[in-house]
Amino acid sequence: MTEDRKVVIITGASRGIGRQLALDCASHGMIVAVNCRSSIADGEAVVSEIESANGEALLVPGDVSDKQIVDTMVSQVVARFGRVDCLINNAGIGDIIDLDVITEADFERTLQVNLTSAFLVSQAVIPHMTTQGGGRLIFMSSTAARVGGLISAAYAASKAGTEGLMHYYANYLLPRHITANAIAPALVESDMIRQMKLPDTSTMPLGRLGRPDEIWPVVRALIETEYITGQTIQINAGRYMT
To answer: Which residues carry out catalysis?
Structure first.
């Protein structure tokens, strides 16, 4: 029964970390709403893989930086499954743009996709979580929020803003039993990372990139406990230490 299983929405879930989290959530008994903007075939493949393993998933494609699309998506999930227990704000872009050539349009686009989308989807699910008596908001950040990173000024700013948004929600929503936390990976295998001119992996703490499946144990802990909120969990093999 749906009421006995958690329902999770994952934005940007057709590839990379989002795809892996969708598969991981499903393998642990969760119903997964798979969002993607343009990679519809990839999103359909994720849903098919979940269903072939006897899981339950729903494809909810659309640009989550568009409020109308977001409201429709969340309404569709609630109409189908009756609730939303967890939102993983994973949608994002990371165009590599040098400081000397980045434009205002580049900056605004990155903030819209990486930060505004997280605000819009969170705002859409919070009323449902409030009615249910609780929920989980998880935001995908990056070590770039602290060290600037290798991608762009816009990317670093968007991830720092994401953590600020998370902190506000964590404080404001505590009485509603809704937690808000962020995860900040560094150099995890993905399409974005493959575009970058990376340092030799032999110079990295473990001599390799991170794997998408190494994010799940932290996500699972954040889903399962109410006693963690307002935190950014670093997943970087010691590349950046707090």
So the answer is: 155
